[in-house]
Amino acid sequence: MTGPRWGGENESSSKAQELWGDFNGDGKADTGVFYNYGLSGSANRSGLWTQASNGAGFANPVKVWDSVASGTGSFSWDCSKAMTGDFNGDGKTDVGVLYNDGPDGSGVNHTSLWTFISNGIGFNKPTKVWTSSFSFSWDRSKPVTGDFDGDRKTDVGILYNNGQQPDGSNKTSLWTLTSTGSGFSAPVNGWDSIDQKLKGFSSRT
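The chain above was modelled as a monomer; its predicted structure follows.
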């Protein structure tokens, strides 16, 4: 393959999070980009583009969502970790974003999960499907996706850096948010390196 896979409007690869998945459900993997447009007035502006595969290459890129133009409002790319998966099990790849809500008035860090559900020709308006009710730092989180329980719906896993413990050991934990088809169950902490006696295990490695 020669030439750029995606481009236009003077886009920069440093402002793009590249995504892959069968967004239109035709059995071919497409490409997508979650893009940082910076400030638009006082609002942080992000966009979502897709390029559908035609089997021999890719169609021209299409902007399927713009946080400002769609009325979603301020949505910071710098606070977003984008991922893909078929969260509702309909055979089309959706987009998820783990979002940094920052500290509340008490200094407690909060993180949320948004989903963009594919409708075959684009994506439905993003929906916030989870917000942490306890301290959960986005900066310490590495999200992954997969069908962890085998029900044909994609779940979300978060490898979390709990930092250095009083005894000097590093602690890492794994949280899972299981898809219900219409949303996600509350996160479950199913593993941590201290319980498994892997005291040198760090999510930073």
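The radius of gyration is 18 Å.
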